[in-house]
Design goal:
Length: 399
């Protein structure tokens, strides 16, 4: 038999995340979502106080090695935490997921670069004020899904990295989708070194915010409005030679797919948390709202919708737990399984957040309730970290 019971330590992290999500993230997200000016969101005390409290509790460093200052939690423990945080709101939670992208990459793929670990990873882990936030940029104006188009030599990043003496000179721009792009102070930048290799000719560079880097205005968008997304521009930026932390070449698809294997699972937990938030709110409403002489949950048409959402939550979580377990127990995890879990969970989140609006009838579209926000938030999950179409194509190739 497979044991699905969490340990006492896992339950403790889950309780901590649940309390923080309900008491801090949810009220913050609702307020931030109402701000019509995207710039106001990331100037607001609400956003920064929430991030600071999350850092104080250590949610930003859960997956980083203990000897570098992280909590080194296994993928099944972080699974429980990400789902709970996402119940509070997936904008802030996505920002917390993206914040450690550079330190995580460094501590897994460039752990031998002790100077970079001391300069970027350890201070990030010690941070309790959300001063250190990272972002990663692969997507560009002309490189979206092409980020996974590994074998067409005509397709390469337009951001370039050229050697000049003992330094790299970075020139170009990353698209307005970069998560945390407008608030990060260090970046993982995918930049083309050998164009004849196509996208495999890109290396991955660690770029501190400073001279030669400009952060764009936050993207004004449909949902997940508490997640900062912005362009990042590089103009003659110079970084030391050893800030290239992954070289171009044949290992590029392995590295990129490893990021997708992890990232897709995390997007999946955002979807489960979001579905739970919508389901729980709609169920409470359906038990209270009386029409045609009884609570609407007792009308089968409504009961079916709610039970169907419940099934989707349980099925998505089950698939994701298997993907997380595989990641914890098998080198590089299983991309096909991660993709299946993410595509399924995010499609379910889109479908059922729409259905939960319907459960509330006219009140579902009113901003008096949060159902319409959940529906808007869900759409972004089908696109982030590669679209569901691209993840399906990757899955098919592995069948
Ligand atoms: C919330 C969110 C967060 C993000 N965060 C980041 C980040 O931190 N860093 C970063 O670099 N990027 C980030 N992105 C960008 C994201 O990775 C891209 O939006 C995504 O890869 C799609 O690229 P595109 O938007 O240019 O769409 P396109 O690639 O132009 O695709 C348009 C449509 O065509 C479809 N399509 C394209 N090629 C194919 C094909 N071969 N077969 C079938 N269908 C195809 C796509 O599925 C899509 O429906 C984020 C996006 C979102 C929504």
């Amino acid at each position: 038999m497979i044991d699905l019971s969490p340990s006492e330590e896992q339950l403790e992290f889950q309780r901590l995340a649940r309390k923080f999500a309900r008491e801090v993230i949810r009220p913050a997200e609702i307020e931030l979502d109402k701000m019509t000016d995207a710039e106001e969101v990331f100037k607001s005390d609400i956003f920064w106080n929430t991030m600071r409290q999350a850092y104080e509790l250590g949610f930003h460093k859960m997956s980083i090695r203990e000897d570098f200052g992280g909590l080194e939690l296994d993928p099944l423990t972080t699974a429980l935490v990400w789902e709970e945080l996402a119940v509070g709101g997936i904008g802030i939670t996505a920002s917390l997921l993206a914040a450690p992208v550079a330190p995580r990459f460094l501590s897994v793929l460039a752990a031998e670069k002790t100077e970079l670990i001391d300069r970027f990873v350890k201070p990030f882990c010690a941070d309790t004020k959300a001063k250190y936030i990272s972002a990663w940029g692969s997507s560009e104006g002309n490189i979206g899904s092409d980020g996974s188009n590994y074998y067409d030599p005509k397709v390469h990043h337009e951001t370039t990295a050229k050697k000049d003496g003992g330094e790299w000179v970075i020139q170009g721009a990353k698209s307005s989708f970069a998560s945390n792009g407008g608030i990060a102070n260090f970046f993982l930048v995918f930049a083309c070194v050998e164009p004849e290799l196509g996208i495999r000719g890109s290396g991955v560079f660690l770029v501190p915010y400073g001279q030669g880097v400009e952060r764009g205005k936050p993207l004004d968008k449909l949902g997940m409005r508490a997640l900062n997304q912005a362009d990042v521009f590089f103009d003659g930026l110079r970084i030391p030679e050893d800030y290239m932390i992954f070289p171009p070449g044949e290992n590029y698809p392995m590295m990129h797919n490893a990021i997708k294997t992890v990232g897709n699972i995390e997007v999946g937990y955002l979807a489960v948390g979001l579905m739970r938030a919508a389901y729980e709110e709609a169920l409470d409403y359906a038990k209270e709202r009386i029409q045609w002489g009884k609570p609407i949950v007792e009308h089968q048409a409504i009961g079916f919708k709610l039970f169907s959402a419940y099934q989707a939550i349980e099925a998505s979580r089950g698939l994701l737990w298997k993907a997380s377990w595989t990641l914890a127990n098998k080198f590089l995890g299983d991309l096909k399984l991660s993709a299946a879990a993410r595509v399924f969970a995010t499609n379910m989140a889109m479908k059922h957040t729409v259905e939960m609006v319907q459960v509330l009838g006219g009140y579902g579209i009113s901003k008096e309730y949060t159902l319409e926000k959940y529906m808007r938030d869900a759409k972004l999950l089908q696109i982030m970290d590669a679209t569901n179409e691209i993840m399906t194509i990757k899955g098919i190739a592995l069948m």
